[in-house]
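Convert to structure. Protein one:
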Amino acid sequence: MYDKTKIHINKEVKEIEKQLNSYINSDQNTINEACQYLLTSGGKRIRPLFTLIASQFGEHYSRDVITVATTLELIHMASLVHDDVIDKSDKRRGKPTIAKKWDVQTAVITGNYLLSQSLNAVSQIEHPKLHEQLANGIIEVCRGELFQFEDQFVSNQSITNYLRRIKCKTALLISLSTELGAYAARADDETVKKLTKIGYYIGMSYQIVDDILDFTSTEKKLGKPVGSDLRNGHLTLPVLLRMKNSKDFKASINELQPDSPSEVFDGLVQEIIKSPELQKSKEVSNHYLQKAENLIDTLNNESGKKMLLEIIVKIRDRNH
């Protein structure tokens, strides 16, 4: 195993940025402009970071690690574009979405182009398992988008439905990042399995926190209106828990329609903001983080462990 400082990690993140720029480059001006716009719109590069950290638990560094990280980010970028089309969203990270800045057709084609380029990127890797896992990842992301679409304004869905949805929407790609980062660096099977679970637990927690912040943060920090998920018909954990504990709230959700007056949505959002279900949701998130932390403690690379534990602290304390 080998240790990397954060300086080395930062250098590799820059290399991933170069690869992303290379793959999104197109001689078709509109696609090129839309991809560049998305790339520079403030993404956190969380999946590449997890890939790089997980690679520290392997025996041999490989350029495949960079390619895996690039591929996963391209898949993620494509999913964001498609999500915005499905939700008819006008803003992402405080900026107009591609569908808003250009049009829906351009957004769909841009998302498809990014997915195609992710396949182009992974073709540079010679390991069949990496191909298979990344292909399955694309399938699951698509299933997640379908689940989210099917569950819109469906009031009788279960918390299990929600967990399945966020697994495909967020946890899967983070889990793949930690799994394939370790695998590409030739980590042993047991370590790869542990890192896969760690990525899953962190991904689940991260999305639950995201769903909490949709109510507790500000429009400026969110880059979109507070309560956007509920306004788009996405029933997240705070809402589902509130429905279990309040018959009146559940009845209001049952009557909710896409064209319900904004005052109705405002009232429901305010009820969630004042409810104890936000803290209960936080407890579920922290439960996933604790499971991740327990597994991290069993790993061997101290530098990698430290970075993973720092991420857990940031998620636990995250407020935007």
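Protein two, convert as well:
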Amino acid sequence: MKKPIQLAEKVYLIDGYDLGMAERTGAYVLKEQQITLVETSSSPSVPHILQGLKELDISPEEIEFVIVTHIHLDHSGGAGLLLEHCPNAKVIVHPKGARHLSNPAKLIASAKAVYGEKFDTLFNPILPIAEDRLIIKQDQETLEVGNDTTLTFYDTPGHSNHHFSIYHPNVNGIFAGDTVGIYYPQLKRKGIDFYIPSTSPNQFDPDKMLKSLSMYKHLKVQRLFFGHYGMSENPQEAYKQVEAWLPIFINEAKEAFDEANDFESRTKSVTKRLFKKLKEDLQNKGLKDDDPIFDVLSLDLEVSGMGLIDYLNKQKS
């Protein structure tokens, strides 16, 4: 297991090894007077988070706040288990997500629908969080985590309706969750800055996503802290790529929707179509045909494909 890395002043990243994969989902540590975590990943990530905290000389008892950008299980699924180790921590969540953390039955059912028999290995256990340990933050509300550090929460739907982003003024950065999609640091190390939208089911909305990106631009942030994965200091390029890929994702989904009659066939078709386009784009940028990132992309596109077809189903009904 690799050690936590420092990304900015008092901001560290712990790899949660979500789905058993490195650089898949991260937990951010704000080493302020009130020590704060942003994201928990799923429950199998909790031992990695605890080990990362130990490496940073932080005891679990010192954690004051655990912020989840949204309640999809790869961002919040480990929160209940983590709280068992962090007796003084409270979880900060979007107003539309709080009830699902205190009663995660619907979250569990949704994840089982997507991941099937892999669910237990990837996500168990998903523990309910007592309501008195939940704090709701509305749009533009703030949280003081240090004498000179106040975070601001912004409602950012598009990926999901229960999604907020957290602006950190001291580093002029925003904890983006999945609002600006997925970033691949593995490719960055090979000289390729690459971002794609994250269109997971079941509340994906492209218009809301673009509106949230416009808000980011208005804030003029210099750093994006992604749920998947790590930090980019090139936000304009991220916006540009996500805005370019989004209509391509929609158009390919429409083609797939029209050529098949059931959800599974349509999802397989759009996943295959998008994979072909992304692979061609990356090969044109010099990436080798057998690069391991293609396995990661395939997984990401399978989930995004489900969200795209779900979105079109709702548009047609």
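The chain is about 40% helix and 20% strand. The two ends are 47 Å apart (CA to CA).
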